[in-house]
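Checklist before submission:
- one chain only
- standard amino acids only
- sequence pasted in full

Submission:
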Amino acid sequence: MRLSSSLTLIACLAVSGAAQAQTATPDDARLRADALALFEPIPLAPDPAPAAEKVELGKMLFFEPRLSEGHNISCNTCHNLGTGGADLAAFSTGHRWQQGGRNSPTVLNAVYNTAQFWDGRAADLAEQAGGPMQNPVEMGSNPEHVVEQLSGIPGYLPLFASAFPDAPEPISFANATDAIAAFEDTLITPNAPFDRFLRGEDDALSADQKAGLAAFIDQGCAACHSGRNLGGDSYQPFGVVEKPGWSILPPEDKGRFMVTKAEGDEYAFKVPTLRNIALTPPYFHSGAVWDLGTAVGVMATAQLGASLDESQTAQIVAFLESLTGAQPQVVYPILPPSTAETPRPKM
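Returned file contents:
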């Protein structure tokens, strides 16, 4: 009798446990369906894949400090691939120790942005790559000197000729920025826990991360931070409901307005990607906030008119941490040597 009772109890517990396991699946499926209506995973590889010769040249140019007037600043200086594609500073330090006026955005997954820079003034990665080279505050050079510099380093001619075989003059400013853009096309971060969840792995996200994803959607964050990059594809005014303090929203920087001169674009900025956001403090175009939880609270108040409690904030932060993908594995290139004829640095 006792044996029969014990077996019955075990059977009931087994059925109960199975039922509990099954009830979790519809919840995950519903959350996944809601998420897939708003987001999509990062592809596992660049598609289409840029030409290998152009990527290799672009990688060298990305790490090439001689593109700057002082021979001391490269693309990687402000978009460090070892620190999430950013430089972990409020403002980057440029030519002659000048500081830029906006926080450097991550270069990772930038290929999926609709435009480049906080104000969207560059239509694509190639145009963006040429901007800092010509900016007197950043790299302090100009297109003519960049060509002179690269032409004065003999090792670059065969590399440009291989990457641009049909060009009568392979070394040009446009080809240099095109090659850098091709390399940046490869700087994607697939297989984040969130992406694995979207692809069907229920256990890829923790319970807190799932709760944070649900809150992210329910609170309205996904109205702007959506798509493949969870941002990067629209412009929004900073302070839709309530403007943050001037330390976060400096009055002199009117964002997109400085490009379009349209009154409606005052204090509007490109919505940043949230991919790898946990790796790239400080936050906002002003680089004014160093804590991710604080940044979440600022956005909730300024954009949504919402007041999140500590639990909601912690869960949304946990979700944001699930957006950290596999970082690009890049071998630092050995650059062609200078010669006595190579243009010299000007500090």
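Reviewer check: The chain has twelve helices and two strands.
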